[in-house]
Amino acid sequence: MRAAYQYGLALALTRELDFEEARSLIRGLRKEHPMNIPFVIAEAKTYQGPQQADIAIEILEHALDFNTKNYPLTFNLAEAFIAARKPHAAIEALIPLSVERPSDENVWYLLAEAYGLASNVPAVHEARAEFFVLNGNFEQAIKQLGYALPLVRHNFQRSAKLRQRLQEIWDLKEES
């Protein structure tokens, strides 16, 4: 019960930006439960400001050494990469998640953000389209792919893939 209280308080303190106090509580919990994933993530979140995001990355990568392919750790690692302005590393972490969890709107949202920071505009529109499809907003999904198509017109394979996905979304729209 004490651990649950401390954990909840640490989360509240993090939301209130009282990172030092939150870290103090989480470190105590991590000493007792070093591999508890929610505690690992909570500690990493206390470092996700732009100046300390590399510490969050280190904490999460260490935990992933023991919990490979863990979704919460990987997703939070991608968020830390974005906070550290390392969009390519975030994309590398998120692409496998988008394949393993294609119906996870949070993955697509974060992937669009990472592509934006990496200046990959066509990929931003593709990820946004998937996000909108998952939310049932087919009109916005169609618009996003419409924005992407002219940007990849010299890439036959990518254009064909986008046109195919656009047709699939039109079909979904008609079914709904």
Given as residue ranges, the uncertain stretches (5+ residues, pLDDT < 50) are none
The overall pLDDT average reads 95
Helical residue percent band: over 70%
Strand content: under 5%
The string of secondary-structure elements, in order, is HHHHHHHHHH
Q: Based on DSSP secondary structure assignment, what is the total number of beta strands?
A: 0
Main sheet properties: none
User: Helix/strand/pairing class, anyone?
Assistant: mainly alpha
Measure the end-to-end span.
47 Å
- What is the radius of gyration? 19 Å
What is the approximate shape?
elongated
Annotation field: number of helices: 10
Written description of the protein model:
With 176 residues, the chain is mainly α. The chain has 10 helices and no strands. Helix 5 runs parallel beside helix 7 (105-117). The protein is elongated, with a radius of gyration of 19 Å. It starts with a helix and ends with a helix.
Which helices and strands appear, and what pairs or packs with what?
Layout: H1 2-15, H2 19-32, H3 37-45, H4 53-66, H5 71-83, H6 87-100, H7 105-117, H8 121-134, H9 138-148, H10 156-175
Helix pairs in contact: 1-2, 2-3, 3-4, 3-5, 4-5, 5-6, 5-7, 6-7, 7-8, 8-9, 9-10
List keywords for this structure.
elongated; mainly alpha; 176 residues
Nutshell version of this structure?
The protein is mainly α and 176 residues long.
